[in-house]
Specification:
The structure is a single chain. This protein folds into 2 domains: 204 residues, Alpha-beta prism (UDP-n-acetylglucosamine1-carboxyvinyl-transferase, Chain), CATH 3.65.10.10; 206 residues, Enolpyruvate transferase domain (UDP-n-acetylglucosamine1-carboxyvinyl-transferase, Chain). It contains 14 helices and 23 strands. The protein has a 4-stranded mixed beta sheet with strand order 21-22-1-23, with helices on one face. A 4-stranded mixed beta sheet has the order 2-14-16-15, with helices on one face. With 430 residues, it is α+β, with helices and mostly antiparallel strands. Strand 17, helix 10 and strand 18 form a beta-alpha-beta unit. The structure holds ligand EPZ. Ligand EPZ binds next to helix 1, helix 5, helix 6 and helix 12. The site of ligand EPZ has 29 residues, from helix 1, helix 5, helix 6 and helix 12.
């Protein structure tokens, strides 16, 4: 498998070295959204004619997804951040287990591939170790549409003579299951209605893409989505919207360092939950038509956070926010209700002097006036981002290891932070 971005040619992992204490200020843009790109790169197999995707983030997950599409017969070419994907001729390829396990959304291709080729095998998914990551709701939806899927030795064996639209109730508003059922139903016979559907911005963008290639999806962004199945879907061109979690992460870089960071060319509504919490913490937030800026002239005040499905506080911002609250004034409680073990940042932040402890599904954070640089290890994507934020304010040098996790969701995070004034560099692990 090609080396991950950030990996040296010898395959060694790299680290980030951060010298804290600088206020970050300035204006940035972020790449296209990882989670929207991955959702679309599962659904793209539905298109019988070539698709052009603009503003695709150049990160390990999208590169691996492109390789996976090729396994099933797609032709994939990159031109900078533009991906050309031609799925006119697909086959039931043999997906490499390691490749599939490296990204969870490999599994979201099963339904759309079934709609095109009728049967396939797909190793069971992997993804960031933040919880059990079950796919029971995906399977419930695919079975309801008429697919047969059996797990045999860690590999899903799937077949579907024909897919027929139906009602699908999701026990939880799962983003992945909503995407998976919505995409598969686009080529089913008749109409599908998904109730208790996820309402994340990623669902809205995926529906926009599906409709752009000729599907008929209504209600995306609400808890009830109607998909009128079509016999075939065409090609088209779609621009991936900005990454809301990257944007939120860099806004927090301004908040935690007491500077002022403005992120341009984003959808401000995507930041509503984070903006409200930052205002509650005393940050100065300004909102424009396609930008948001955050400044924290004084020390932030402690706030309580509870992660919830959209439009609640996003779980992907939980760990970066926890890092930010480590230097706030007072005690914050951050309750993670979506994943059972999104806690990899807690031990590492403690090594930097944070007073943070786990109490059931919550992190209890007693704000301190300073953190101290240390060597810390990223355990997953957003934990890695949280450690970078902590390093920006810690006294002395922080070395963040395992940054291949961070490279999964942030295109060269050090370049963006450097452009805001951070003293940060990527080094090859000795
Ligand atoms: C997507 O994961 C995102 N990943 C996650 O971002 C994000 O945290 C999550 O949505 C919630 O917004 C991608 O889009 C690639 P879910 P997904 O299905 O689809 C349970 C990041 O950092 N569940 O909404 O896996 C599940 O256990 C990543 O960018 C079931 O019980 O999220 C979890 O508790 C991390 N059964 C909850 O639903 C299922 O069949 C949310 O999962 C599926 C999910």
């Amino acid at each position: 498998m090609d080396k991950l971005p950030g990996q040296s040619s010898t395959g060694d992992m790299n680290s980030l070295v951060i010298r804290g204490g600088r206020k970050l200020s300035g204006e940035i843009e972020v790449s296209g959204s990882k989670n929207i790109a991955l959702a679309i790169l599962s659904a793209v197999v539905l298109a019988e004619e070539p698709v052009t995707l603009l503003n695709v983030p150049k990160i390990s997950d999208t590169e691996i997804k492109g390789q996976l599409l090729e396994v099933f017969g797609a032709k994939v070419t990159w031109e900078g951040s533009t991906m050309h994907v031609d799925c006119s001729n697909l086959n039931a390829g043999h997906a490499d287990e390691e490749m599939v396990r490296s990204i969870r959304t490999s599994f979201y291709m099963v339904g759309p591939l079934l709609a095109r080729i009728g049967n396939l095998e797909m190793p069971a998914p992997g993804g960031c170790m933040i919880g059990a990551r079950p796919v029971d709701l995906h399977l419930k939806g695919l079975h309801a549409l008429g697919a047969t899927i059996e797990l045999d030795g860690g590999v899903y064996k799937a077949s579907a003579k024909n897919l027929v639209g139906t009602e699908v109730y999701l026990d939880k508003p799962s983003a992945g299951a909503t995407q998976h059922v919505m995409s598969t139903a686009a080529l089913a016979k008749g109409t599908t209605i998904i109730t208790n559907a996820a309402m994340e911005p990623e669902i809205i963008a995926l529906a926009e893409f599906l409709n752009c290639i000729g599907a008929k999806v209504e209600g995306a962004g609400t808890s009830s989505i109607t998909i009128h199945g079509k016999p075939t879907l065409s090609g088209g061109e779609y621009r991936i919207p900005a990454d809301r979690i990257q944007a939120g992460t860099f806004l927090l870089a301004g908040a935690i360092t007491g500077g002022t960071v403005r992120v341009n060319k984003i959808i401000p509504e995507d930041q509503t939950a984070v903006v409200n919490k930052l205002r509650e913490a005393g940050a100065e937030v300004k909102i424009g038509s396609d930008w948001v800026s955050v400044g924290a002239p004084t020390r932030l005040e402690a706030v309580n956070i509870t992660t919830m499905p959209h439009p609640g506080f996003p779980t992907d911002m939980q760990q970066p926010m926890a890092a930010t609250l480590c230097v706030a004034n007072g005690t914050s409680i951050v309750d993670e209700t979506i994943y059972e073990s999104r806690t990899g940042h807690i031990s590492e932040l403690s090594r930097m002097g944070a007073k943070i402890r786990q109490d059931g599904s919550s992190a209890v954070i007693q704000g301190v006036t300073e953190l101290r640089g240390a060597t810390v290890y990223a355990s997953d994507l957003r934990a890695g981002a949280a450690l970078c934020l902590a390093g920006l304010v810690a006294h002395g040098e922080t070395i963040v290891k395992n940054i291949h996790f961070i490279d999964r969701g942030y295109e060269r995070i050090e370049d963006t932070l450097k452009s805001l004034g951070a003293d940060i560099s990527r080094v090859l692990d000795s």
